[in-house]
Design a protein that fits this description.
About 80% of the residues lie in helices and about 0% in strands. It is mainly α. The relative contact order is 0.17. Mean pLDDT is about 75; it is low at about 320-350. It is found in: Membrane. One of its GO terms (cellular component) is membrane.
């Protein structure tokens, strides 16, 4: 039986990890929204973030290699282009469109619409046969869809262009996380560790998003006084610093998610993600001036109920799969793949 001191220490550690996750998860949402008010180049911002994440992932891999004395996985060109490229392209479009939408919509509308990604994840999981058909899934879909409809109904700050961008990002996000799950479940690739996955995804994500950036922002960025036509050094350094902070927050988000789920459980991450949505909306209303009616709040509650039901179902079936693995006396690598499968199932809550 565990002593009270160890229980308290474990609880304090879990609370600290959740708060650490909240700093990056909520922080990057508000930071990107704030940055977009004065820097209207979301695709360029995303490219900078991808570059920073790649560099930090490479440094982390080197540190892990020195610590464990074991070489990290590096894919060959054939596997890299054929198996990683589809996931990278979907991820780039998801993140790019999400950041782009901040030019048009409020944080509250972004948060709610982005939560609909679970609908598309369920759809593509069924298509790729990663999920078994379940009657409860119909209830999940109805709750989230009706909640999203109620949230956007008669909204005074509704913007159709931004809403379509986030909805399209959520659709692509469904493809993204389904492909990521398939990618991380392929044992021969050796990408079970999220740091290795981020390291391999970023270059192809950069290349996939770069043509869209050139088409939409290339000319405007080349003539802006914030970067290439600066008359003083200080504005340039300020722009680079603010972009770098966002990239660091993006990397910290992925790292904090993995740290939270590895030290606690995927259920903790899922529940923390649900409460994160509540905190985000409360902060958006309190500090960003977002306006929400009673119907909008009711829609938010209905949508969260659907997400909570989905989390509960995933936890129930995950426990069944865990018991099955223990009965089969599976090896440690297989258990690691199972854990990473659960991690991917919870990542859509990152916002």
């Amino acid at each position: 039986m565990a002593c009270p001191v160890s229980i308290i220490c474990r609880a304090l550690r879990n609370v600290g990890l959740v708060l650490f996750y909240y700093v990056f998860s909520i922080g990057i949402t508000f930071y990107n929204k704030w940055l977009m008010k004065g820097f209207h180049f979301p695709l360029f911002m995303t490219l900078v973030h991808l570059t920073i994440i790649f560099c930090l992932s490479a440094l982390t891999r080197c540190a892990m290699q020195c610590w464990t004395r074991k070489p990290r996985v590096t894919l060959g060109w054939k596997e890299y282009l054929y198996k990683v490229a589809p996931t990278a392209l979907a991820t780039a479009l998801d993140i790019g469109l999400s950041n782009w939408s901040f030019l048009f919509i409020t944080i509250s509308l972004y948060t709610m619409t982005k939560s609909s990604a679970v609908l598309f994840i369920l759809f593509f999981s069924l298509v790729f046969k990663l999920e078994e058909p379940n009657p409860f899934l119909i209830l999940v879909v109805l709750l989230i869809a009706s909640g999203l409809f109620m949230f956007t109904l008669k909204s005074t700050q509704f913007n159709l262009e931004g809403f379509i961008m986030v909805l399209l990002a959520s659709f692509i996000g469904g493809i993204r996380w389904t492909l990521t799950q398939v990618l991380m479940q392929k044992a021969e690739l050796g990408l079970q560790n999220p740091i290795d996955t981020m390291y391999h995804l970023q270059p192809l994500m950069f290349l996939g998003l770069f043509p869209l950036f050139v088409l939409n922002e290339g000319l405007g960025l080349s003539t802006t006084e914030k970067l290439f036509r600066v008359s003083e050094l200080q504005p340039l350094l300020y722009s680079l610093l603010t972009l770098s902070v966002g990239g660091t927050l993006a990397f910290g988000l992925g790292f904090s998610e993995f740290l939270l789920v590895s030290r606690t459980s995927s259920l903790t991450l899922s529940i923390a993600g649900i409460f994160k949505e509540v905190c985000t909306l409360l902060l958006a209303v309190g500090f960003m001036g977002d306006k929400m009616s009673m119907v909008n709040w009711l829609g938010f509650v209905v949508c969260l109920s659907g997400i909570s039901l989905h989390v509960g179902l995933k936890t129930y079936y995950s426990k069944g799969n865990t018991s099955l693995m223990e009965m089969c006396s599976c090896t440690q690598p297989v258990k690691e793949r199972f854990v990473m499968w659960v991690v991917v199932q919870t990542l859509f809550l990152r916002g």
